[in-house]
Description:
- Helices cover about 30% and strands about 20% of the residues.
- It is built from 13 helices and 23 strands.
- The longest helix has 22 residues, at about 1-25.
Amino acid sequence: MSGIGHSGAGSLESRRAAALERLRPVGQDHVLAFWDTLGADARESLLAQVESLPMDVIDREARAIRAGAASAESVPAGLEPAPVLRRRDIDTGHWSAAGARVIGAGRVACFTVAGGQGTRLGWDGPKGIFPATPLAAKPLFQVFAEGIAAARARFGAMVRWYIMTSPLNHAQTHDFLAAHSWFGLGAGTVTLIPQGTLPSLSRDGRILMASPSAVAVNPDGHGGAVRALRDSGALDQMRREGIDTLSMFQVDNPLVRVVDPLFIGLHAEHPSSSAEASSKVVPKRNAAEKVGVFCASGGRTMVVEYSDLPAGLASSTSPDGSLRFSAGSIAIHAFGVPFLERIAAGARALPLHHAAKKVPHVGIPDGRMVEPASPNAVKLETFIFDAVPLALRALVLETDRAEEFAPIKNAEGEDSPASSRTAQLDRAARWLESRGSRVARDASGALRCEIEISPLTACDASEIPASRIPREVSAGERILL
Length: 481
Ligand code: UTP
């Protein structure tokens, strides 16, 4: 018995020595500071974590942090607004029919990135569980599931659903969906894919420890989707099943049209698309709105984060007074599966960005927990929109914010549950009005009734069955269609 114990300890010791050899040259050996206080299991799990750390990447980013670089990427010179397609310039019927054929052939799957931490909302649990709709209080996941079920029925084809989780919320997400019977989609057609993590670093580039035996980590950003889709076997599954298009959206937007035939048709067949990376945008509300902007440089389309867009460009206007750089990203994309395979094959092709965050951690050497009141750490993450410039031709479609974008990001104010609720009610009322209903409004045009329309009933105004359209919705009425 003791022999086994010794040989186990011996191998732990040699692994510890190897770990130190990786950590020491890059000034991170404090990760093993509590080694002497740890039991065998804790030592084992700490070593496993250290062995999986991409030390070269961490060292490069730690140096950049110490050098004061805000981000691994700098904005290229000569930025122009990206070319944008507008509905009025295209034959929407033609492209929607093209998209319907692509979806009907079973070539499309949905992909929701839901691995974020949702710290701004302050909701305890995966954001997809958040009750989002105005009357039925349906969780976000249910809204998307209903959209997918509606697409399957309407186009007569399987539409799989892939959901990216993080190791921090995977189990809760799985349990929630399982407890709700996968909202009727069929367990085998919904696949959860946990994304990778990266260590959180202090502001002087040191790896932070969540406990004496665990490195503090954060999900590696929605750009982690590329690797996660490959490593989980999802891309292989799609290839086997003839799925060549991913309709991608974020977990926080209940107005998203999860499978939009117009967008899919343009992505798949329009001459300005290479069927690799397409995106929807909305006109920015004003120069200061905090959304990424689609720009072009050297023949490539790219998203420049609001914090990186030089102020002079952000506020520059065209002769008619409109913003030049107004194509605001709403994080709705269509990606070609072969394209994702190609970029997944390039190791860490997406650049790492740095975000200031509050990260609780243990102090070294005292081992006391530190609960920071203000951002004390740098989170490393990749962004999926950094895939856009890697496409041969990236299509950008302008859409209507009021129809498709009302995210729930903040606890209050803009992009909050309250603002999203208002946008959902407004859209439902507009849809009914466009089909001839009289909807109660006050003199200022504000709604005096509440209407919610399930994606199972309609994914746009034209889909509402005539038999369900009320002639009138009176003041105080609440109707659920
Ligand atoms: P956000 O930028 O809103 O980040 O993510 P967040 O982490 O959810 O929220 P905050 O900043 O802490 O408040 C946009 C989308 O990308 C997903 C989120 O789940 C959301 O759908 N995401 C973000 C991931 O899937 N993984 C990540 O690592 C980060």
